[in-house]
């Protein structure tokens, strides 16, 4: 579908890509991976036509449509959310205006028998069918479905985009992109500002509705769920793996071991050759052999190995000052905003050295309880901090408290103490501030860079209770690993508010679940908690809590264990019925997709493109497929609710 041939990109003498070639096929799901600065975002910009390569080219069919979501975007502030999202349907609006104009012309004409009148009728008929095929009568429903899938509520649709934060504005842009349904989706860090619910919706959309996808993401779980081909960019070359990210990691390690063996063998041969040259350089009898060896050296294609920096993996942060045995004790803590209850009866004890996670749906009170612990807001009940507790707090707004006039290096040097000061540049490199980036002024840093810098600064301060609210949002995979290892070795107490299962796994030993206006304690790690709930992700947890809330409204209903035989039988019957509906919907989707592909092939021919009946049939199939997918989504939701 898209062919990349001999792509080379150079910046001021530095080669980013060197003679790179590969092909993107229809329905491909590709993850671009590599170190920061390897060129992932640059590759997406070249695909989007926003940047030109130094050499080589990308062959894109003329009719192919490409949609690009950058990390930063511009939105107008004069439109509502609905109006901004409707920009995705410009073609439909233009076609609608053209039809209105031609219909008006038909109404005004009286030459009913003329050839031009009949031509006009044919044109209106053809455009009407084309309008229906493009979803002209159903696009508003699709627009609302997409916005709500990305976390908006109906009340938001008529609000101006200027009223929303950068993260929500990014969701509007993502909605526009998905609604256009381009042949190729280019996504640069699409999950950065999404919660678990929206990420899950996007995963499902990409799996069932998208065409080809090329994405850059540092969310392991997301790229594993959405891609099945991984292209690694390393040292100007690409390595193409026809597997998802988890399998790629294993294969990459095998490749690197082979690289290292080849590199070591070549280095030995080079050393032997150079030693021979040095030994016999000035002997006339060996001049021919010496010259031959010199020419051999010049012709050798040197093997390069992309070194994995492990220097920071055992980083020791300053020891935490000793606190009392129980840094946080709560009894019957509640928080209300007016008549709105966030949570109540929160009773918990966090021991010294505990590493705990706060999980649950956004708005359930996780950050609110953190603010209670910090003393930033009032509350009901008893909340006591232990002796000598020194809190280190990280949230997105912490990045705004940095001194704009300092450099990145000076910001860290100011708080670093002892031997750690000799490793400042290594620490900065591990968090993507290597080389000249450490000399940047804070005032020129992006929001993500400021967040990373605030994180490093916090981890070097002598505290014994770390409270981190979504700390991994702006970290790449390697930086996450560095942070995770540092927190694992931290001898103080840690409270983590996070949706990142991979990050929490092996780090926390206790989970506090927020939902139904309660805070419930669960001993063990994040996957033990999820397994006990018979769930495989936090999204299912959030659905289950809302279902439980409905059940709580009727206290006199029998529990599952006390249900009568007939009740259980009825529930099993309902479960089988929904499972059958899911299977039928999946079979129908498979059949309709096959029919759609066949019609697309026919419409691609000169004869097919002129066949209006074929266009009408294609439009009907496309509409039926969309409705069936919606039905399938509803059945899946019903099935999950029944199982919960």
From TrEMBL:
Highest taxon of the lineage: Bacteria
Name this protein carries in UniProt: Probable ATP-binding protein YbiT
Domain ABC transporter: 2-260, 328-548
Annotated PANTHER family: ABC TRANSPORTER ATP-BINDING SUBUNIT, DRUG RESISTANCE ABC TRANSPORTER,ATP-BINDING PROTEIN
Gene Ontology terms, MF aspect: ATP binding; ATP hydrolysis activity
Repeat as UniProt keyword: yes
Family of this protein: Belongs to the ABC transporter superfamily. ABCF family. YbiT subfamily.
UniProt KW Nucleotide-binding keyword: yes
Coiled-coil regions, chain positions: 78-112
Chain spans, region Disordered: 547-570
Residue ranges, compositional bias (Polar residues): 547-564
Record keywords, A-Z: ATP-binding, Coiled coil, Nucleotide-binding, Repeat
